[in-house]
């Protein structure tokens, strides 16, 4: 079990206050890591870090800002002396404020350019910048693990039929930008793994499937029917995979995409 220990390691999770971000933080803390809860919400990050225990801190981090990331890097190094694990979790997944307009705005023909650019900035540029700022510290030190969170929709195209209700009405479309950005994350992982392999920095992708989170019952059932295990994921279903990628249990693994999706992409 020592292979799964992260004792004395420092781990950063971006987008840490999201549904999965919190579970990522809890998993890393349980494995012994010092966790940096990085999110735009300063007070929320500090409060959540305090709840994890005394060895953890919360920091305000905007992944689209090099200055914000650099300030965070310096604070982390001053506190812990090293950066060992980076979980690039921050991302935008479309939510439309007006449900009545969701179908119209999410359709490819109408999808807003501003929304497309905003997601590109967070989901791709944010991963690039965070990896550059924190990963360079790892490369200089000669070791580290970067875990980029992608999605099954970075591997296969969205099945728009799962967004149809019991009467066959299309309630929503999975928009183009999320699959585009998550596909980019998967290939950025390969680039960075090849680039920093000789520096001892491992870079892998974790591609989760959909998580049950109080969605409409018809959607939960539609999604479950697409998986081999017959259900959506629970938020805790990715914790073991994350700890595996973070530590020595995956010491000979880099440039890989670990797909944890209940069998969605298997057939």
Explain this structure to me?
It is a single chain. This protein has 267 residues and is an alpha/beta fold. It has one domain (2-96, 120-157, 177-214, 234-259): Rossmann fold. Helix content is 42%, strand content 14%. It contains 8 helices and 7 strands, in the order E-H-E-H-E-H-E-H-H-E-H-E-H-H-E. It has helices at residues 19-30, 42-52, 66-80, 99-106, 113-141, 177-196, 217-226, 239-246, and strands at 10-14, 34-39, 57-60, 85-88, 144-149, 201-208, 257-260. Strands 3-2-1-4-5-6-7 form a 7-stranded parallel sheet, sandwiched between helices. Helix 6 links the parallel strand 5 and strand 6. The model has no long low-confidence stretch (mean pLDDT 96).
What does the secondary structure layout of this molecule look like, with pairings?
Elements lengths: L9 E5 L4 H12 L3 E6 L2 H11 L4 E4 L5 H15 L4 E4 L10 H8 L6 H29 L2 E6 L27 H20 L4 E8 L8 H10 L12 H8 L10 E4 L7
Parallel strand pairs: 1-2, 1-4, 2-3, 4-5, 5-6, 6-7
Helix pairs in contact: 1-8, 3-5, 5-6
Quickly give the structural class.
Answer: alpha/beta
Total number of helical segments?
A: 8
CATH class reads Alpha Beta
Q: Give the total of beta strands.
A: 7
Order of helices and strands: EHEHEHEHHEHEHHE
**Low-confidence runs:** none
Radius of gyration: 18 Å
Organism: Mucilaginibacter frigoritolerans
GO molecular function, one term: oxidoreductase activity, acting on the CH-OH group of donors, NAD or NADP as acceptor
Pfam family, one: adh_short_C2
Protein name: NAD(P)-dependent dehydrogenase (Short-subunit alcohol dehydrogenase family)
């Amino acid at each position: 079990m020592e292979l799964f220990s992260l004792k004395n390691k420092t781990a950063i999770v971006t987008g840490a206050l999201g549904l999965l971000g919190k579970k990522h933080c809890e998993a890393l803390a349980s494995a012994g890591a010092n966790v940096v809860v990085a999110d735009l919400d300063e007070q929320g990050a500090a409060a959540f870090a305090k709840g994890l225990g005394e060895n953890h801190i919360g920091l305000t981090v905007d992944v689209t800002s090099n200055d914000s990331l650099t300030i965070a890097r310096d604070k982390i190094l001053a506190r812990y002396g090293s950066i060992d694990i980076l979980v690039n979790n921050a991302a935008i997944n479309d939510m439309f404020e007006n449900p009545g307009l969701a179908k119209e705005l999410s359709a490819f023909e109408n999808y807003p350019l501003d929304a497309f650019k905003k997601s590109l900035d967070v989901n791709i540029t944010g991963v690039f910048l965070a990896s550059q700022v924190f990963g360079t510290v790892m490369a200089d030190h000669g070791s580290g693990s970067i875990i980029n969170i992608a999605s099954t929709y970075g591997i296969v195209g969205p099945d728009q039929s799962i967004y149809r209700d019991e009467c066959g009405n299309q309630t929503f479309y999975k928009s183009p930008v999320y699959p585009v950005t998550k596909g980019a994350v998967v290939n950025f992982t390969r680039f960075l793994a090849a680039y920093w392999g000789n520096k001892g920095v491992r870079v892998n992708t974790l591609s989760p499937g959909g998580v049950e989170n109080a969605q409409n019952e018809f959607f939960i059932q539609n999604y479950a029917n697409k998986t081999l295990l017959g259900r959506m994921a629970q938020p805790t279903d990715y914790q073991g995979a994350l700890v595996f990628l973070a530590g020595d249990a995956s010491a000979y693994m880099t440039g890989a995409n670990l797909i944890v999706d209940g069998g969605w992409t298997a057939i």
